[in-house]
Every structure is written in structure tokens, then in C-alpha cells.
Amino acid sequence: MTETDTQLAYRIANAAGELLVRVQRSGLFEGKTLGRVGDQMSSAFIMAALGEHRGRDAVLCEEERDDGTRSSASRVWIVDPLDGTREFGETRTDWAVHIALAVGGVPKLGAVALPGLGLTLSSDNVPGIVQAPGRLRMVVSRTRPAAEAVAVAAALGAELVPMGSAGAKAMAVVRNEADIYLHTGGQFEWDSCAPAAVAIAAGLHVSRLDGSPLVYNNLDPYLPDLLICRKEHAEEVLSQVASAVSAD
């Protein structure tokens, strides 16, 4: 049986995550060196796997040189071999591996491995959305929460949930452990493409902070803002974002 793109994304993300766990637990490296080695090893593994199984497709990978030629391709794999290098180096669990396929600029499918939790989610493997709790929960950076996110959380009466990588935060919403992931202050396409694809498959609202769709495979991969939340909260969150931004 031919392996589908989603199955391939899941398999590569899961295997890269298992590789990273072995590196993290080896005791051979620590701190920033552990993060650097993990990035390099995961990137090499993923690039080899995509080259073997989808060699005709273009790839945008955080750790690989990008000459921009992939921006003219329709099918582009967008990869973050280790999202949350700091958390990985600190031997925490809130880091991730992102494998996504964008087609015509749209995040068609993706897989996000959470190896520290022994879990990999994909566009074909998402939990159902359950009823929201009485008080909303917003995931924010554990080291530098954005002022806009803090302001919106205050306006909504939402509880702040500090967390590491972008993938971990986005999947917290997918996994019903949080209700809102609002990011400002800068990201790149590899930070959000796979999480966005998985969140869309889960039936969540996914957009830029002005409500416009996320568009991938741009010549400049900088994509600074993101909102992932339950659809019933999107209008109010976007309204509060606009108010917070205009108040600055």
C-alpha cells in the first residue's frame, strides 16, 4: 500500500522525536550543546527521509540553507526539526517536531510530535473537541509572554498557562488542555505550519491576528503572528486583539 503524505509526515515526525529522546537521555550533551546537536541530527534525519520518499517536492527547513527557489513550487514540506531548542536542552517535555506539507500556500496537512509526552498528533490523528471549562485558558511563552497576549487574557478573564515551544502550545489547544494560543512578536513558517494544519484538522479556528488566513511558502518565511482557538471564541479574541494593538 502506498504511504499517504499524512502517514509519511506522522512517521517521520514520530521517528525524529524518538531519535531526539535518545539524544536527550544519552547524557553525552547538555544545555545549548544538547540543543544544537539535537537540531542537527533531527534535521539530517528528516531531510534524508523526505529526500527518499518525496524527492521531487521542495523543502523549507529551519536548519537548512534556503535559496528561495522552493517559493515557486506548489508542494513544499515545511519542517522544524526541533521546535523548542531551549526546552529540549533543559530536558523539559514541552518541545516538538514539526512536519507539514503546504500546497499552493495552504497548510494541507501536518504532524506534530511531542516526544517528551510520547505523543504524535497529525491531520489524521486528532482528539475531539470537548466542552470548554468555565474559565478560559491561554497558553503563553514561559519566558517572554507577549504584552498583547497578556492584555487579551486579562480582558477575557483567561488563565495564563506558561509553556515552551510553539508546537507544544498549539497542541495544548488541540488536546483540550488550553483554549487559546495567541502569538505576537515573531515566528517563521516552520514554527506554525504543522501546528496550524493539525489544528485545522481538529476543527479549530486558525488565522493571523487580523483574522486573515495563514499563507505559507513565501519568499520571506517570516510569519510573525498566529491565533489558534476554539471557533466560538475567535470573534471575541480577534476583537480584543484589535483593541490591545490600537492601545499600544
Can you walk me through this structure?
- With 248 residues, this protein is of the alpha/beta class.
- It has 7 helices and 10 strands.
- The strands form 2 sheets. Strands 1-2-3-4-5 form a 5-stranded mixed sheet.
- Helices cover 40% and strands 22% of the residues.
- The termini are far apart.
- The protein has helices spanning 5-25, 31-53, 85-89, 147-156, 166-174, 189-201, 231-247, and strands spanning 58-61, 75-83, 96-103, 106-114, 119-122, 137-141, 159-163, 180-183, 205-207, 226-229.
- It folds into 2 domains: 5-122, Fructose-1,6-Bisphosphatase, Chain A, domain 1 (2-Layer Sandwich); 137-247, D-Maltodextrin-Binding Protein, domain 2, CATH 3.40.190.
Quick summary of this structure?
With 248 residues, the protein is an alpha/beta fold. It is built from seven helices and ten strands.
The CATH superfamily of the largest domain is identified as Fructose-1,6-Bisphosphatase, subunit A, domain 1
Spatial strand order of the main sheet: 1-2-3-4-5
Number of DSSP E strands? 10
Low-confidence stretches: none
What CATH architecture of the largest domain do you see? Answer: 2-Layer Sandwich
Q: Main β-sheet: number of strands, strand sense, barrel status?
A: 5 strands, mixed
Task: Please give a handful of descriptors for the protein shown.
single chain, 248 residues, alpha/beta, Fructose-1,6-Bisphosphatase, Chain A, domain 1, D-Maltodextrin-Binding Protein, domain 2, 2 domains, 5-stranded mixed beta sheet, 7 helices, 10 strands, globular
